[in-house]
Here is the input.
Amino acid sequence: MNKLVELQKKIAEEVVLEDAFNYEEIKYVVGVDQAFFKKGDKEFVVSAAVLMSFPDLRFIDSGVDLRKVDFPYIPTFLMFREGDSAVEAVKKVLREKTVIIVDGSGIAHPRKCGLATFVGVALRNPSIGVTKRPLYGKFEEPKRSGESKGIFNDELIGYAYKPCARCNPIYVSPGNMISPETALRVVVATIRNYKLPIPIREAHKMANREKLNYLSDLDSSG
DNA sequence: GCGACAG
DNA sequence: ATCTTGTCGC
Here is the structure.
């Protein structure tokens, strides 16, 4: 496992925490999410990427990736389980001036290398990590709807943000080529009547549709 | 040593 | 993440 830790540290060194382009220049956002299932004793992952215009969030394109997974779920090592698949799905829809929003941590990670960081570094494109539960860092609980509190290790590595009065906070951190402030700003702009960013929700639905789709094709063809 | 611990 | 129905609350 030391080898994997070293790889994460190496990737973390390539991270840039400055905006590759200004907020006003963002033309698209792409949400990525995954669904898992087993076929016999083997496990598979379906990654879905949904590209939307920004800031109006109109559906533009989508891409999926389906593959077998061999790595187990181990906190802080998520990138080794679903990273390659996520990258492949995003690659299919990526355009200029696009920010990637991933369902996983960015630099709010023990070695500053969460899933969003992996995707952002692999594609050399701005990326943001969004999670429903905290993984790493110190922060205060945002109490009011729309309120955010910084997440820290030594420096600011992200924000805990409360989407609505009844919602628990979501955790936002830069993946690559974006600042914590801009990452939060983009995420807030993609949240409407729901807790999570619209692109992530759409990707979630699509991953599950593809999964069910695949499973039903299985028992009618072998 | 013990607890925490994305999806 | 996945397995699963109804149910309480804003």
